[in-house]
Specification:
It is a single chain. The chain is mostly helical. The chain contains 20 helices and no strands. Helix 4 runs antiparallel to helix 10, helix 4 runs parallel beside helix 12 and helix 11 crosses helix 15. The radius of gyration is 21 Å and the shape is globular.
Amino acid sequence: MKAKAKAYEMNLCEGSLWKKILLFSVPLMFSNVLQVVFNMSDVAVVGKFAGPIALGAVGSTSILVTLFTGILLGLSSGVNALTALYIGSKNEKDVRETVHTAAILCFLTGVLITLSGIAFSRPILTAMHTKEELIEDALIYLRLYLLGMPALGVFNFGNSILSAAGDTKRPLYYLSLAGVLNVLMNLFFVIVCRMDVAGVAIASILSQYFSAVMILRILLRTNECFGLRPGFLRISSDKLRRILRIGIPSALQYAIFALANLFVQTGVNSFDHVMVEGNSAASNADPLVYDMMAAFYTACSSFIAQNYGARKRDRIQKSYLICMLYSFLAGLILGVGIYLLRYPFLSLFTDEQAVIDAGVRRLSVMALSYAVSAFMDNTIAASRGLGRTALPTVMVILGSCVFRIVWIYTVFAYFGTIESLYLLYVFSWLITAIAEILYFVKVFRRTALHASEPKTKRSNENAGKQII
């Protein structure tokens, strides 16, 4: 079993970075896309078989779904960075404590999100000025979907552990099965059972629990130091503090994006329901592109953290630059590609020509904008790999939250067009990216001095301290 598991793992501290980053990222790209399929297939099925009202209802919750899942993704990024550091520095005891602490933390966070989300979903949707004809179906979908948050927390935990060890293939296999199940159950619940928004939410829940169970199976069966053992399930206060020092700013970063986008959604809601529905359909391109690009951000953080633990300075710098190029190209190719296929793409979600035309207006602005986000997000991931997340998060708050709100109440308020609203994305990414890059360069120069020290047991212990 151990030899078989080793075949899936990758040594991130040796070999060609160009090749290994690509081999690491490609399975992760497809894994991320399959997670997007959960929500995208919901929107597609209700749009095609339940009508534009159901489409608008599900689409109007997408920002909240991003907010809640982003918190879990942020925590798992802290787990990933810390686990990769300890694997790189060969601290098996620290790896084991990190894994078992993280398992409890991610599951309980999922439960807390479920309870709080269900309790406050109506006030939040009301505050977003969700259309009266959409809000009841939106509530049904959101409250049911939130029941899958504990499973999503568990899956993201397991995925972060395996990717820290260089294994991005097996999560892809199980997500592929879960994605197929999700689509089939969507069609069954909506077409056969006529459950509309409730049906697609239930299908997503069942798919999420399936993928969580399968990834737990991997961790329970492996003999590696990152394996999960029920008898070791306890919280290490030291590892909890270190995970949270990285994970909370990362989770806050996701939450800030979602919060800023709540203001954007409020701006969209100021138009008629056709524009709202068109925005809902076109915004399905966002997670598709972002999550494909995010595979390279995870690679950046994992490669940098492991090589920092192994004290390999040159590989830290090269990992950052290579991941930057890969993610930029991914955003550019995907953005332009979706725009070129804009009519077939939007037709997946609606048959209404007016809704499609409204969606095209969004895609025409976003097509060349996605690639710019790579400069910001990849740099944040690189800083995370070095254990620095607090100040980058402050920069995100200023550049991607405060700036967007100011834009809405100035530029958008002045022009009043949907295009002037969508343009805030690229300008906020660009401004934030400049600040993030300047910060990373400064941190790398200071941190790289430690990475050039001879590798000893003492230096490995220091690496574990420095990452917090």
